[in-house]
């Protein structure tokens, strides 16, 4: 007889961290492959769709890189907030807030027209940051759970956007509820490879800034202290509340910047559906990257490739649209299992009965 004892690890060696991450990803990919094989796909089909089309075919690579731009930014948003254990489930609402703030600039002619694009980017970051900052203040001052507040703020932002698109901002010359099209000076330039636009530089710059902030700056050190033990951090003089508010606001600003890249780089106007289906992918990306800003870039490209392959599978193999979400869930679950094994150790202890 015996029992299983689960105890937290005092320290985990880097080799174990790498092994659990690679093991979790490998297990997730294996289970996903088996799942797709049961849907009637062959191994050659999987290789051609997930590797060939998404990374070697020009059309597939174009779609992958274009999708990776906002995914990188929302992934950074969740990752930065997780650095202080702030659960940001409201990236869609912050994305909408950023898109709305950016759209106000051309619609109301705010600032000199030659610099409208930069004003739109700044407005988007302010809008998204304020949208998430309100939830951070609610947690700090009212002890409101940020999972609930950030999630509910998604609906507020979405309904506000619909109200404007069906009302004051609707383009009377278009039969669909969209705003007027932006001028060429108010859109992100294409880079000459399909639909890939200059927003990719915003995403890469944001990743580098977040890496510097989290790894090399004083704020990053204080964020690690707050995440490890808020009471101990406050005891040694770290302004824990200010650090949480700063990181949460930065996370919201990154989501707002994602909204800016969509309306200025892809749609060139405000539409109804710019902020759909970003909550779950952002969480998957942040966890796959283990909140590493540079790792977020790689994870975002991988998730974007998954979406690109998923579109192809729907078109040519008649697979349901939920296939991509299922694969994301499998990967996230396997990575979380690996994270559990990294943080906890399991020992089988034999029990011996002692007779009196």
Mean pLDDT, rounded to whole units?
Answer: 90
Structural class comes to mainly alpha
Total number of helical segments?
A: 13
Alpha carbon gap, first and last residue: 19 Å
Low-confidence stretches are none
The total count of strands amounts to 2
What is the share of helical residues?
A: 55-70%
Rg to the nearest angstrom?
Answer: 22 Å
Biggest sheet statistics: 2 strands, antiparallel
- Mass-distribution shape: globular
Q: What is the element string, with H for helices and E for strands?
A: EHHHHHHHHHHHHHE
Q: In order across it, which strands form the biggest sheet?
A: 1-2
Taken as a percent bin, the fraction of beta residues is: under 5%
InterPro entries: ABC_transp_permease
Keywords: Cell membrane, Membrane, Sugar transport, Transmembrane, Transmembrane helix, Transport
Protein name: Simple sugar transport system permease protein
Main location: membrane
Layout of SSEs?
Layout: E1 2-8, H1 14-38, H2 43-55, H3 58-82, H4 91-107, H5 116-142, H6 146-165, H7 199-215, H8 218-228, H9 230-235, H10 240-267, H11 279-288, H12 293-317, H13 322-343, E2 344-350
Antiparallel strand pairs: 1-2
Helix pairs in contact: 1-13, 2-12, 3-7, 3-10, 3-11, 3-12, 4-5, 4-6, 4-10, 5-6, 5-10, 7-8, 7-10, 7-12, 8-10, 11-12, 11-13
Description of the structure:
The chain is mainly alpha-helical and 356 residues long. It has a domain at 69-303. The protein is built from 13 helices and two strands; from the N terminus they run βαααααααααααααβ. A two-stranded antiparallel ribbon has the order 1-2. Helix 3 runs parallel beside helix 7 (199-215) and helix 8 crosses helix 10 (240-267). The longest helix has 28 residues, at 240-267.
């Amino acid at each position: 007889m015996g029992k299983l004892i689960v105890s937290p690890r005092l320290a985990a060696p880097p080799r174990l961290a790498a092994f659990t991450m690679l093991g979790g990803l490998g297990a997730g990919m294996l289970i996903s492959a088996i799942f797709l094989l049961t849907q009637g796909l062959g191994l050659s089909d999987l290789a051609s769709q997930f590797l060939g089309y998404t990374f070697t075919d020009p059309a597939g690579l174009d779609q992958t890189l274009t999708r990776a731009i906002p995914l990188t930014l929302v992934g950074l948003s969740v990752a930065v907030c997780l650095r202080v254990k702030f659960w940001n489930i409201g990236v869609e609402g912050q994305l909408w807030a950023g898109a709305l703030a950016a759209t106000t600039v051309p619609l109301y002619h705010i600032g000199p027209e030659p610099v409208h694009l930069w004003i739109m980017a700044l407005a988007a970051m302010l809008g998204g940051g304020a949208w998430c900052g309100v939830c951070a203040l609610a947690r700090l001052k009212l002890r409101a759970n940020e999972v609930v507040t950030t999630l509910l703020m998604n609906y507020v932002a979405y309904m506000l956007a619909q109200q404007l698109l069906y009302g004051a901002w609707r383009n009377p010359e278009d039969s669909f509820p969209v705003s007027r099209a932006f001028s060429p000076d108010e859109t992100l330039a294409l880079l000459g490879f399909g639909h890939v636009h200059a927003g990719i530089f915003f995403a890469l710059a944001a990743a580098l800034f977040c890496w510097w902030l989290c790894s090399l700056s004083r704020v990053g050190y204080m964020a690690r202290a707050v995440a490890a033990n808020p009471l101990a951090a406050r005891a040694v003089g770290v302004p824990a509340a200010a650090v949480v508010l700063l990181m949460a606001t930065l996370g919201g600003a990154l989501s707002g910047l994602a909204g800016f890249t969509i309306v200025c780089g892809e749609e060139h106007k405000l539409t109804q559906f710019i902020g759909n289906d970003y909550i779950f992918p952002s969480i998957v990306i942040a966890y796959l990257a283990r909140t590493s800003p540079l790792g977020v870039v790689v994870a975002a490209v991988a998730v974007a490739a998954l979406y690109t392959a998923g579109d192809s599978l729907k078109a040519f193999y008649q697979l349901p649209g939920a296939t991509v979400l299922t694969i994301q869930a499998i990967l996230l679950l396997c990575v979380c299992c690996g994270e559990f094994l990294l943080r906890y150790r399991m020992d089988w202890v034999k029990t011996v009965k002692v007779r009196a």
